[in-house]
Amino acid sequence: MVLSIFSSRRTVLLVILLLAIVTTIMFAHEEIGSLDTFWRPPPPRAHDHMGHERDLAVVMPVNENTDLQFYGNMWVNDYLHPVCDFEGDGCRIVCNQKSTWETLDSKTICFTKALKERYRGTEFFIKLDDDAFVDKTYIRELMYKYHRHPKPVYISDFILNLDGENLNMNNTWYGNGKFYMFNRRLLDCIDDKIQYTGHRNEDAVFGAMVANGCGTDIVMVPENDDKIWHRRYANKNKFINLTAIPNRVVEDWEL
């Protein structure tokens, strides 16, 4: 009699335990659907690609008249890599040659070689003039869209170069120098040993290096001019002249 009661109680406990296990499994299935769904990582967000300074380098050729304090207080400061004539505070790339209109092409070749050799862990690059400004959200969107793109990417306002003296530069496209953006894959194939005769527009030289080294199998993306300001910034109650001017004394009435 006692044995029978004990056996019945054990059977009841076993049934309750089995019901609890089945109920738990059914509840979990309804909540998460499947293990594959539950453990799938969330899709990347645009700003994830600007979380580390190695994701982006903003290259800005500067001279003694460039106001780095201005850009030091802008969002680009965290990614800024000034290209200087000679060693100085804040200089990341040094070309050891005084900037003039006649030497800007060689300065472009100089910083291209430096980027290709030393910035292997950086995915995106922007060349920005010191009288230009670009929207941060726009750059985030571009970095998100072309993250780990399998082809060289070149983003700018493109101009066709016609050069009757240098065949390796003739009929090549180049980006407007105020802003152009490119990825690491473009640097991997760019021809930084280009040779040509005569002084040439520095941005046309960069475009020719791209054309000669990477060929036509590149992604050329027209820029959004509404997100880039050149020589002046104007929006709502702000109007800022970005154009370089000689240093001068400010009169009292201007303050």
UniProtKB/TrEMBL annotation:
It comes from Linderina pennispora. Residues 1-28 form the signal peptide. Keywords: Signal. InterPro entries: Nucleotide-diphossugar_trans. It comes from the Eukaryota. This is Hexosyltransferase. Gene3D superfamilies: 3.90.550.50.
